[in-house]
Design brief:
By secondary structure, the protein is α+β, with helices and mostly antiparallel strands. It has 2 helices and 4 strands.
C-alpha cells in the first residue's frame, strides 16, 4: 500500500465505506470509524471477497465527506 494514501474503501456490513488508512492497521478487535460515522470492528476491513465489493453499495455520506474536503 502506498504511503500517500489517506483513506481506503472497504465493504463492511451495511455498505462500502471510506476509512482513514490508520484503521487498516488497528488491532482486529478495535472499533474503527468511517468518514460517515459508521463504526465496525477493524477485523471487518480485511479479507473481503469480490462478492462483498459487489454486494455492498457505496456509502454516499462517505463519498460526500471526501469530495467536499478535497
Amino acid at each position: 500500500m502506498a504511503d500517500y494514501l489517506t483513506y481506503v474503501w472497504r465493504p463492511v456490513t451495511g455498505g462500502r465505506h471510506a476509512f482513514p488508512i490508520a484503521a487498516t492497521k488497528a488491532p482486529p478487535q478495535e472499533r474503527v470509524t468511517a468518514f460517515c460515522g459508521a463504526e465496525t470492528d477493524a477485523a471487518e476491513l480485511h479479507d473481503r471477497s469480490e462478492v462483498d465489493w459487489i454486494r455492498e453499495g457505496t456509502c454516499m455520506r462517505c463519498w460526500h465527506t471526501l469530495t467536499t474536503r478535497l
